[in-house]
Amino acid sequence: MSNEILIYENILPKKTLNNLLQFVLFNNEHWYGHASNFNSDKFFYFKDFSDNIFLADTIFQHILDKVKMNLKYNRVYANIQYVNQDGEFHIDAHEINAYTCMIMLSKTLQEGSGCFCTKEKKYPFIQNNLLVFKSSIQHMGEAPKEGREPRVTFVYKTLVQ
């Protein structure tokens, strides 16, 4: 796989998608103060789900069914961004076999709002899309431009086996 971003639409069944979003936002304590880079002062909300094996494995199976890559995850978490909580450009890992799998969990945002960005391109935030990319690609998540609802992503850090 090159430096392209692979996009898979409708990764989760609708009921699973809605239940997962509700679970992330309302049934789990998430904390403010997470940043894309260590020395950053651009903060947003975060919740690690790596210890919830049943949840992590269940959602990951949907990814494996679509992606057709021999992936194993080592971390799973949600990023939750409200208006003015942009991320910053960063990479997730340096390993050549490392891939990031990101589900756009919250509702589709208006054009130009909440985009997933690489240095070359902006990708619209479309609910239930899965983006798969090499973890060494510089990327960032833009916050929503307006409204009260957050931009929520459910992310797996993986390695090709």
At CATH level 3, the topology is: Jelly Rolls
- Proper CATH architecture: Sandwich
- The number of helical runs is 2
Classified by CATH, the class is Mainly Beta
Secondary-structure element order, as H and E? EHEEHEEEEEEE
Head-to-tail CA distance between termini: 14 Å
What is this structure, in a nutshell?
The chain has 161 residues and is an alpha+beta fold.
Description of the structure:
This protein is of the alpha+beta class. Helices cover 17% and strands 33% of the residues. The protein has helices at 14-26, 53-67; strands spanning 6-8, 31-34, 44-48, 71-81, 98-104, 116-118, 122-123, 130-134, 139-141, 151-160. A seven-stranded antiparallel β-sheet has the order 1-8-5-10-4-3-2, covered by helices on one side. A three-stranded antiparallel β-sheet has the order 7-6-9, with no helix packed on it. The radius of gyration is 14 Å and the shape is globular. The model has no long low-confidence stretch (mean pLDDT 93).
Q: Which SSEs are present, and which pair or pack?
A:
Layout: E1 6-8, H1 14-26, E2 31-34, E3 44-48, H2 53-67, E4 71-81, E5 98-104, E6 116-118, E7 122-123, E8 130-134, E9 139-141, E10 151-160
Antiparallel strand pairs: 1-8, 2-3, 3-4, 4-10, 5-8, 5-10, 6-7, 6-9
